[in-house]
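pasting for the record
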Amino acid sequence: MENIRRQILNYLETNSRIDLKELAVLLGTDEVTVVNEVAAMEKEKIICGYHTLIDWDRAGVELVNALIEVRVTPQRGKGFDRIAERIYKYPEVTAVYLISGDYDLLVTMEGKTLQGVSRFVSDKLSPIEEVVGTATHFILKKYKDHGTVMGQKKTEERILVTP
């Protein structure tokens, strides 16, 4: 069953809206098997959620996306988990990762303005006792997100003209 699970996950990762009956046909198995495997993987938290990738620029919605590197002092017995949990509970935070390098956590967030993101860092992140430093990077343009090329330009179709 491990092979079928991997195949299901590969398809769902690139197209979470695929009809499970269609997926069963693509995998050469029956729909019941696919439905049961998906349900089991959701229960086991292998499948953690389903997301729609939106190009907010094209939708006419102005958002500021930022990557914030956070250096922290880990807590005895809790490591980085408690601090990461405190940070990811903020609704404007879209992701928190434990990373290697000069910083410990990478926080991604969305805000309405540059000032709003800066206020979040100064008013919410910096006051956390274990936070000893931050560096904020603003995303100016997304070229590829979650494996999808964003804002692809259509190639011109030229008609061959011969004399």
